[in-house]
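sorry for the late reply, my laptop died twice this morning and i had to redo everyting from scratch. anyway the thing you sent over, i finally got around to it. pasting the sequence first so we're on the same page, its 202 residues, then the predicted structure underneath. double check i copied it right bc i was rushing
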Amino acid sequence: MMVNIRDKKVIVIGGGKIAAKRIESLLRFQPNITVVSPVLEERLHAFVENGVIEHIAKSFQTCDVQDALLVIAATNDTAVNQLVKESCHPNQLINIVDNPANSSFHFPAMYEKNEITIAVTTSGISPILAKNLRDDFAAIVDGLEPDYLLFLKEVRQLVKAGQFTKEQKRFLLAECLEDYYQTDAQMRTLFLRKLHAAENGI
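ok and here's the structure:
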């Protein structure tokens, strides 16, 4: 499941290195992040100064998680992290950095390129394995030509807009994934011409 968190409220309890790592991984998705912590990791100060995140310099209180979509308990105190968990509403999503099994969401190992996003998680069992698997999949994505990805995008748009049956749509969307379309620009052109002709009733 991919969740759109743009402009959504995210609360991070703790301002250390792990909290900083979590914050940096979330910034690409442009949420509204507030960090509650008496102290703040050095590299986060620039984000605060530039208005990218908000910092509330105090210890955790149960009211701090109110109205947040995502809550991250990232202190070095297990008891505080558990209190954060207990302070959350059942519908809030929480990640506890030192207790993945008790978390409702996890941070995957991610890779993004040419509109493709790879996210791999082992639900906290082995982050190293997740990173290794991500790298394996990333190698496959790196081998895909940008023109081929644009071709797939255009095919999907034409198939969705065309007067095709469900079975025909399923067949066309599977056919364009054949290996020869990845490397043969002429075959891609012929396939798109076929779709345009079908769309125009030719």
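The mean pLDDT is 91.
thats about all i looked at so far, will dig more tmrw
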